[in-house]
Amino acid sequence: MTDPISPSGSSVAEAEAFLAAHPEIEAFDIVLHDANGIGRGKIIRRHELLGMFRSGRHLPISILGLDICGEDVHETGLIWDQGDADRRAWPIPGSLRAIHASQPPRGEVLMSVYNLDGSRMSSDPRHALQRQVDALAAEGLHPAGAFELEFFLLQNERGPDGKMVPARDVLDGRRNSKTAVYSVDQLHGMLPLFNDIYADAALAGIKAETLISEFAPGQYELTLQYREDVMQAADDLLRLKRMVRWHARQHGVTACFMAKPHEDYAGSGMHFHVSIRDDAGVNIFVEPVEGAFNDPIRHALGGLRATMGEAMLVFAPHANSWRRFASNSYAPVSPTWGVNNRSVALRIPAGDIRARRIEHRPAGVDANPYLVAATVLAGIRHGLKLRLDPGPETTGNGYADTSDAPPIPVDWRSALEAAKASDFLKDALGTDLHRSFTAIIGAEYARVARTVSEVDFDLYLHTV
Predict the structure, then answer these.
(1) 80, 156: one domain
(2) CATH code of residue 23
(3) Which residue, 11, 66, 207, 461, has most beta carbons within 10 Å?
(4) In the predicted structure, residue 310 carries a pLDDT above the cut 90
């Protein structure tokens, strides 16, 4: 019996070459990402790697139907409706790499799920993004982009008031409690940790670039190199999140990717920079005269504005996500657009017009980048197809802009209901993933809604 052909395009030769180059590696993390962007999979031993590259690896279909706590969500249709049958996960070509500073030495490889006949498993978020990339390619268009990664470094233990505390510098234990935005000295205290992150990223072929002390105590940002392949940009973001979390633990602190861990400070976004090239490699967003924006970028903005309300659950999928949206907090509160303006949802950055792009700002760092990118690309396609006008540019305070704009949900429940009813989101994600994603978030909503929190006791125990 011959080995099946890998539908992902992976090859045994890649694994053989890697093993020959890394005789020290004893095991491998095999990782796929579910609807919430959580890495699921296994750790396999060295001798199992070649077999996985030859034949894939059977995994239960329910792995893509789990909620934020890792529990089955039966409404996805991925559990007992299909007998929790196996599907086959295959390695993503080029994703095999060594993990920096792991003891004993380990490697990692990203996986994607396929049906047993080799067709794409439609509830795998990676395939949702590929559908949109393929749809644009059929129109002679090719998206490029990059994500920004904002996060907090926190002490492992909470403070006396139960709140999270910014991590002490790993260099010398110095305490940080100030908003040290753009402080270079603040970065120096965390350099041992960030040096490990940069080294690990290099092993994965990820070009992590600028490091910033952000707009809250203990908050940082890492930027990533712009990719001509949007799928690679999403892979980069998820791998970098795992690296940050892993190396933070090694240095005795906690990396936090909640959208809003502190009520008194700005939250963490995951801004997505995107441009579109034609078959000749020309950026279609570039205007002939600087500032005279052409039809393609205006129509793309129009599509993103028109679909933002239906898509907000993708950009803000969790209860905590919605705490990030507040005026004057660097998180957009309406579908505005503008040039060189950080108060809007859709920003056209200043700079060389040859690199013209849209910075999509609504998504929190807790969102799944595959789904964010898929939804943004679908919105751009929608705008280009219908030649949608984006309306007037916001030139001042986007939080105070009262111009006529498409409505967006104001809370988590409204976003969930809008997403369930959205034909646009069904197209963006695919019918099966739309069902499973909204069911998974719906289960999380029900869990939160029935939980009696500490704030309930604080407000009501002795007063009502």
Answers:
(1) no
(2) 3.10.20.70
(3) 66
(4) yes
Same domain membership, residue 116 and residue 135: no
Q: Which of 96, 91, 88 is nearest to 113 (CA)?
A: 88
Q: How far is CA 194 from CA 202, 206, 208, 241, 314, in A?
A: 12, 14, 10, 13, 29
pLDDT surpasses 60 at 254: yes
- Gap between the Cα atoms of 263 and 325, Å rounded: 11
Residue 1 confidence (pLDDT) above 60 = no
pTM of the model: 0.95
- Is a pLDDT exceeding 80 seen at residue 92? yes
Which residues form the domain of 393?
131-429
- pLDDT for 327 equals 61
Residue bearing the bigger pLDDT, 266 or 310 = 310
C-alpha closest to that of 310 among 414, 446, 388, 431: 414
Locate 337 and state its tokens.
């657009």
Structural domain includes residue 126: no
**Tell me, what's the pLDDT at 43?**
97
DSSP letter (8 states) at residue 4: P
What is the amino acid identity at position 364? Answer: G
Q: Are the C-beta atoms of 270 and 371 separated by less than 8 Å?
A: no
| Number of independent structural domains in the chain | 2
User: Do 158 and 278 lie in a common domain?
Assistant: yes
Residues 6+ apart with CB under 8 A from 93: 8, 9, 10, 11, 14
* Percentage of the chain lying above the pLDDT 70 cut: 97
HSE-CB at 384 with a 13 A cutoff on CA atoms is 18
- Per-residue pLDDT reduced to its tens digit, 282-300: 999 999 887 789 999 999 9
The backbone torsions φ and ψ at residue 71, rounded to the nearest 5 degrees and listed phi first, read -100, 150
Q: 74 is written with which tokens?
A: 């039966």
What average pLDDT is seen over the chain? Answer: 93
Residue 112 sits at φ, ψ, to 5 deg, of -140, 150
DSSP state of 353: G
The span from the CA of 336 to the CA of 410, in Å, is 15
Q: Which residues touch 146 (CB under 8 Å, ≥6 apart)?
A: 223, 224, 225, 226, 227, 233, 236, 272, 273
Q: Using one digit for the tens of pLDDT, what is the confidence trace for 401-412? A: 666 777 889 999
Phi, psi for 283 (deg, rounded to 5): -70, 115
For 217, residues 6+ apart whose C-beta sits below 8 A from its C-beta are 166, 176, 177, 178, 179, 180, 262, 265
- In this predicted structure, the answer to whether residue 395 has a pLDDT above a threshold of 60 is yes
Residue 407, preceding peptide bond in cis (omega within 30° of 0): no
